[in-house]
Each structure stands twice: as C-alpha cells, then as structure tokens.
Design brief:
Structural class of chain B: alpha+beta
Structural class of chain A: alpha+beta
Radius of gyration of chain A: 20 Å
InterPro entries (chain B): PAC, PAS, PAS-like_dom_sf
Number of helices of chain B: 16
Radius of gyration of chain B: 26 Å
Largest sheet of chain A: 9 strands, antiparallel
Strand order of the largest sheet of chain A: 6-7-9-8-13-14-12-11-10
Number of helices of chain A: 10
Distance between the termini of chain B: 58 Å
Number of strands of chain B: 11
GO cellular component, one term (chain B): nucleus
Shape of chain B: elongated
Order of helices and strands of chain B: HHHEEHHHEEEHHHHHEHEEHHHEEEH
Largest interface: A-B, 45 and 49 residues
Protein name (chain B): PAC
Helix content of chain A: 25-40%
Shape of chain A: globular
Order of helices and strands of chain A: EHEEEEEEHEEHEEEHEEHHHEHHH
Distance between the termini of chain A: 41 Å
Strand content of chain A: 15-25%
Strand content of chain B: 15-25%
Oligomer: heterodimer
GO molecular function, one term (chain B): photoreceptor activity
Helix content of chain B: 25-40%
Keywords (chain B): Chromophore, Flavoprotein, FMN, Photoreceptor protein, Receptor, Sensory transduction
C-alpha cells in the first residue's frame, strides 16, 4: 500500500524523470488468507487489533511524523451533528481549494487511461505504505522489504488520518473502471481490518473520482456513518444467498448488498450492477462497510446538475463535492461559518435535492439493475453447469 | 442436590467436567480470567447468588479481550439449549444468525462502545438452530473506584408471537398469516420461568419467524426485563461490597477526572513501558492513566496518582529551566524530549529521559499528553532500539489506541 498525499499542484503536473519509479523498490508486503475468518471468540473486537490495520495506522502515523503530508491532517475539527442520523462534519479551514482542473470529461463514466495525465505511477516510494496480496496457504502476516515486480500488487496511500488510497495493479495503468476482481480485492482489504469502522469506497468518474487510474479509498473512523443507520427493505435474494435491499428514509437513493456465504458471491453481484451502470454512463459510488459484509451502491447526478447550473447557490458556496463519504453522511466543509451553522436538515436537503438521483430515476435504474442481475446470474450458473458437464 | 454443570466459577476444582472442544475454546480465552472476572470483584459466593435469580441473563466483561461472557444464568441456558461450557468465554454474537437484523446488531455494538443502556427486540438463535425473538436489555455496571465499566449485563425476555392482527402489521409477507393461533392464553405461563420457554414458543415453521422484520415487546415484557435487571444489579452491588470493589449503575467521576473507556484501557494495557496520559482539558492537567511500569518505576500506587498533576515526580534538584521548556512545548502543542532529575516515592532520585507528546482524538483536538519515562540507569531491554526510538514507539501505540475512540467520546460532544 502506498502513502500518497494529493495536493493541488500535483494534478496535471508532469513529474519528469519519475516515470515508473516503482520498479524494483522494496516495500513491506502483507499477505492475507482467502479463507473465511473464524467468527468465534474474537469477532467482536472493540479496538483495532488486526495486525493489518494496526500496521496501516502505524505506517500512516510514521509518514505524518516524517512530514510527508502538506498540512496537519490531525488538526481538523470534526463533530457529529444532532439529529436522528448523526451526520459527521469536518472543517478543513483556510485551505483554498481551487477547483481541480477537470482532467477528464465529466459526461463519460468510462474513459481510457492517459499516461500523460497525473497517475499513481508518478508517486514517490516514501509515500507508499505496503503491498497487499493473497497468501499461498491459509496464513496471513507481514514480509518486510519485498520488491514490486509484478503488476499485481495493490498499493495504498493516505489522505487523512487512517484515510488512504488502495491502488490495485498500479503498474497496469488501468482507468477508473470497476471489475469483479478489483472489487473482490477491496472486500478482502475491508475484511482484513476486522472492524466495522474500516470502510472502503469507490467513486466512478462523474461521481467525483479525482484521478482516472483505478483506485479505492480507505477510511478508518470509529463511529457510525448515517447511511449505515438507515432502514432498508429487502427487495431480492439471489440464488447465492446474497440479499439486495433498498435504502429507505435516507436522502440518497441506493441499494445495499449483503448476506451470502462468502465474499466472492457478494463481489459478483455488486460488480454486475456496477458494470451495468458504468457501461450506461450512470455515475455511482460504492461504500464497503461492516468489514466487507455490507455494500452500499449509491446513485447521484450532482456533477451533471452543476454543469447545467441547476444547483442552489447556498450549496455551491459550501463547496462540498458529494463523493462516497459525503453520500454516506460524512462531509467536509471549508468555511468555519458552515461548520458552525450547518444542521442535519441542510445536509439532508443537499443530498436529497441536489446530489442524489430522483426517486423516479432511481426506480428506472433499479429495475434495470435487478433484471441484469437476474440474467447475468442465470448465465453464470448455466456456464458453471456446462463446465461441470465437460 | 442439583449438580452444577458450571466449571468451577467460584467453586473448587472437583466439579469440572471433562475437557471438550468448547472447553478448548474457553481455554483459549483464559478460563482463569473468566473465573476471576466475577470473583475478584464480587467474591466467591457470587455465582451462587446469581443462580438464585429467576430469568435469562448473561454477564460479560469488556475489560477482557474479545468481550467474553463470564456468566450465564440457568434460565438462559435452558432457553438457548447451550451448556455453560459452550457459552463462557465466547462473545455474545454467537447467538445471532442469518436473519438477525443488522441494524439491531449495530445498535448493540454502539451501545457497548458508548457504555450505555439499551433495550431492543432481537432475533436470536438457539443451539439447535431455531430462531426466537427476545427483548434484549443491556446495561453497564460501573466500578465506583475508577468509574470504568466493570461488566455488562444482558437480560433476555422471550417475546411470544402475538395474535394475528398485531403480527400481520409487522410481517412483510403472506407467511405470517399462516399462524393464526393467538398465543395470549399461554403468556401467563411465562411466570413459571424461562425453563418452559423453549417448549411453549417453538414455531411450527421457523422460516415464518425469520420473515418477520421485527417484533415489538409488550409492556409486560419490558417490565420483566427491568425487574430482572434491578435484581441482578442489586446482587452485584451487594456482593461487590464484600471485596471493596464496589459497583454502581451510574458512572461516577473519580478525583474530578472522566474515566477512560474499557477499550482504551485495554489497548493502553498492551504497551509495556513506563508512561502516563494527562488530560489538558481539565484544570491542572491531571494524570488519567498510568501504566504498571510507571508505578514500578516511581513506587507510587495508581490511586495515589490518578487525578494529580505530573509534577509530583519533581523535587528540590529538578532544574527549573527544563520544567519551563516542557510547559512551553505543551502550550505550543508540540512534542519535546528532555532529561531531568526525578524522584521516586521513597525519596531516591533518578535521571529521567522524558518525552512528552500531544495526542489528538478523532475530532482533531488534543485529547491527552503522553509522558514516556526512561530511567537512564536502568538496563536496556530495548531490542537494540535507542531510547528515543522506544519512546516514539510508545507514542505511536498510544496514538493508535486513542484513535480507536469514537467522535463522541471525550471532550468533543455532539452539537446541540
């Protein structure tokens, strides 16, 4: 996993002579076991005990002490707003966020990787935390100092405390486009932390992904995200046992995937839905929660609305870009006035009226997702049967 | 005389049952710890006293890693079909299953983390795999000496199926309508005790039960839960006086300081070096945590120093400039390393390599200062690490531990 601190300057900047600095350098490697975790005595951990998470947080802290971050990420004020959902608000004051130059068109969810634009192969070794790979046996643990040779190694980098990027297959230079294997990897990472407070998110292009190079965001926060409190209604159960729910009484329209007996089935179901969305230019955000047992798929149309000038001035001034964490109920504001005055009601309106797709639009999309899922899962089962017959 | 099937909780060893797979699991969670969890605080007679209480309940200890069950009542074992060995040392999640509502699980988890009372309907599973609805009433029991949670008590009252009209309102699907029988007439039999519960309320088709999204408890059930809770609390309080480690249902502030959460204390307890945490938000920046190694280094007991300012280590020959330097760093919210002369309780002095560092909580505020001491003359067990590296290691571990505190713990409170 690599530590990477994005700053305004780095976007669009050419780092000459630093192409592919990653080849041949040594990093610690964490190897994880695919086997389902035993949910016996140790399942209800109250504090981070997982070797993996412990090391991640320690490495993060080490980079901070070494001054690799451009601002003191520890000093941001954060609070929980009163109200039923407990929206979480963070203030990053004084950081003059110029609008990021749009490196890519916002109307296309799938765009080809462009090596000339900023991507993660251009980051320095010091910014990387460690690698994350599947082990050959059922054990898990750390190897120190292994080289990144293969393109299979994912990397992670930090943005805020316990807030890092997970970059699968960094050397393959894949664009921001979700597939079953990458999503499965993200689920393994979530599970490995062994705590419900370690979440992994994915933002598609058009839904505020910042860089068109395949990556996930990882965020450790001890607390409950508002979206996790929202009631749900079960709408479908797949043959694999994976259950699909619809969010109700929540300002963002979306689905929740859960259940099933293993991560692979869950990953298959969610990726079928996401691939459908990205093939049809529908922006979306994913939050993996509850140590990989629960996946939120949220739909928004904020970027489009903003381009068309349809967003209320009140919200434009708050400068909140609704990516996964924001849709989940964790918002970052830039002005102290917003930090002091924003209420649950304001954020609810922002999400409900500006960011989320409408209920009608959601119904349209949802019907397509469900029928695609039925078709694809039948296809897969038939293929499996054919394979058996051979 | 009924032979007790429990493995020597507060009893002598001759009652232990033969080893089994379950016992191995328990051994993994340290059988001794489980036993002592109750007897150390409530005396050897506590198990007997708790066995006198009617009702289904569990007692858990958040101070032991994994938050294990340390007591299970007769009624609970009868209701769930498990034996005591199968339950002790395990976490309460073992009774949850596929149809247990995830939101309820989340609420329980958060109530434990925030150390507060919760009453909620919950679908649990018996040993034979059959699900059943219970009213789950959870409450913390605080130690008066340090204000932290000594135990959690989970009272469980079965919620029987209601008459058709009420259950229809809850059930999503048609399956709920298959069971028309009104069970009201059997509810009075509840008073016979939980031992009968598993016979009376087994559903003909368990999947119907799982299709129910929720089941409300009646006032009668809520009252039963509160009554049981009060009886248990009363017994625990009474017996805690025998050991002097008194408990109460309310958290008390000790020496003016807020107690640290059990999870934080657990994490800090793993750091085997001399250090203290002080709280800059309170007047005079008192010590709120001291490691065992600090106590052995200085000769003081925990009670003597909690709530006091760190300066009691200073003495006549401690340089004033160094103290000033420390104060300045604290004001600037910076870390510093100094070397100063400190004094043990019995009067002898030692050169202390002291490192002081701010530790922020999740909301960004400085929640604590950590002071790490190294006695210059002590032989180094530091694995070849320099003293400074060892100190930074402690600071790192403390930071990780403090980061496990939620946003609503500590000085930052929800805005109103």
């Amino acid at each position: 996993m690599s530590v990477y601190q994005p700053t305004e300057g780095q976007h669009g900047e050419e780092k000459s002579g630093r192409n592919c600095v990653l080849q041949g350098i040594g990093l610690p490697l964490y190897y994880f076991s695919k086997a389902e975790k035993d949910s016996g005595c140790s399942s209800e951990k109250i504090e981070p005990q997982s070797t993996f998470l412990d090391r991640l947080l320690k490495e993060w802290d080490d980079r901070k002490v070494r001054g690799l971050f451009h601002h003191d990420v520890n000093a941001y004020e954060t609070k929980i707003l009163s109200g039923d959902y407990g929206f979480i608000l963070q203030l990053i004051e004084g950081r003059d966020l110029k609008k990021r130059p749009t490196e890519f068109r916002i109307d296309r969810v799938l765009q080809p990787f462009d090596g000339k634009k900023f991507n993660f192969t251009k980051i320095a070794q010091a910014e990387m935390l460690f690698r994350f790979e599947e082990s050959e046996n059922d054990e898990s643990g750390f190897f120190e100092n292994t080289p990144i040779a293969a393109s299979e190694s994912p990397n992670v980098s930090p943005i805020g405390y316990g807030h890092v990027l997970l970059i699968p297959r960094i050397l393959d230079c894949l664009p921001q486009r979700l597939d079953e294997q990458s999503l499965l990897l993200a689920l393994y990472v979530a599970r490995e932390a062994e705590t419900p407070y370690f979440r992994v998110a994915y933002n598609s292009l058009g839904a505020f992904a910042t860089i068109n190079h395949l990556h996930f965001q990882v965020f450790y926060l001890v607390g409950v995200f508002p979206v996790e409190k929202a009631p749900t209604q079960r709408i479908m159960t797949l043959a694999s046992g994976v259950e699909i729910f619809q969010l109700s009484h929540y300002p963002v329209r979306g689905l929740v995937f859960g259940g099933g007996s293993n991560l692979e089935d869950l990953s298959i179901a969610v990726s079928i839905a996401c691939i459908f969305l990205q093939d049809n230019d529908i922006p979306y955000n994913v939050i993996i929660s509850d140590a990989g047992k629960q996946i939120f798929l949220l739909l928004q149309c904020y970027a489009e609305k903003r381009t068309r000038g349809e967003v209320n001035q009140e919200f434009l001034e708050m400068q909140i870009n609704p990516a996964a964490w924001e849709l989940g109920g964790y918002m970052v504001v830039k002005r102290r006035k917003d930090y002091q005055e924003t209420s649950e009601d304001t954020l609810w309106r922002f999400l409900d009226e500006e960011a989320s797709v409408s209920a009608e639009r959601f119904k349209e999309i949802n019907d397509c997702i469900l029928s695609t899922l039925s078709d694809k899962i039948v296809e897969r089962n038939m293929k499996r049967e054919d394979d058996h017959k051979c | 005389m009924v032979a007790l099937t429990i493995p020597s909780i507060g009893r002598r060893a001759e009652n232990t049952s033969p080893p089994s797979a379950a016992a191995e699991v328990m051994a993994g969670c340290s059988l001794r710890l489980i036993e002592q969890s109750l007897t150390a605080r409530y005396s050897d007679w506590i198990a007997e006293a708790l066995d006198e209480i009617q009702g289904c309940f569990l007692i858990t200890d958040p101070g032991i890693a994994g938050h294990p069950i340390v007591f299970a009542s007769h009624g609970f074992l009868a209701m769930s079909g498990y034996s005591r060995e199968e339950v002790l040392g395990r976490n309460g999640r073992m009774f949850q299953g596929p149809a247990t509502n995830r939101r309820s699980v989340l609420e329980i988890r958060e109530a434990i983390r925030e150390e507060r009372t919760l009453q909620i309907s919950l679908l649990n599973y018996r040993k034979d795999g059959t699900p059943h609805w219970i009213l789950f009433h959870l409450f913390p029991v605080f130690g008066v000496d340090d204000g932290s949670v000594a135990h959690f008590v989970a009272v469980q009252v079965p919620i029987p199926r209601r008459s058709r009209s009420l259950s229809e309102a809850r059930c999503g699907g048609a399956r709920g309508r298959l069971f028309g029988a009104c069970r009201n007439e059997v509810r009075s039999d509840c008073d016979l005790g939980c031992n009968l519960a598993s016979d009376l309320f087994v559903d003909v088709d368990n999947r119907g039960l799982e299709a129910e999204e929720s089941r409300e408890a009646s006032e009668q059930e809520k009252e039963r839960a509160s009554d049981a809770a009060n009886s248990i609390l009363s017994v625990l309080t009474q017996y805690s006086k025998l050991t002097g480690r008194v408990v109460s249902s309310k958290r008390c502030r000790v020496a003016g300081i807020s107690p640290l959460s059990s999870s934080l204390i657990l994490s800090l307890g793993r750091i085997k070096q001399s250090f203290v945490l002080t709280d800059p938000q309170l007047p005079d920046m008192p010590i709120v945590y001291a490691s065992d190694e600090f106590l052995s280094l200085t000769g003081y007991s925990r009670q003597e120093i909690l709530g006091h300012n760190y300066e009691f280590l200073n003495g006549p020959d401690t340089e004033v400039e160094v103290l000033h330097q420390i104060r300045q760093s604290i004001q600037a919210e910076c870390a510093c390393t100094v070397r100063l002369l400190n004094y043990r309780k019995e009067g002898s002095s030692f050169w202390n390599l002291l490192h002081v560092s701010p530790v922020r909580n999740a909301s960004g505020k400085v929640a604590f200062y950590v002071n790490v001491q190294i006695d210059e003359n002590a032989k180094s067990e530091g694995l070849g690490l320099s003293p400074h590296m060892r100190q930074l290691g402690v600071v790192g571990a403390v930071k990780v531990a403090v980061r496990s505190l939620s946003l609503c713990a500590g000085p930052s409170r929800p805005s109103s």
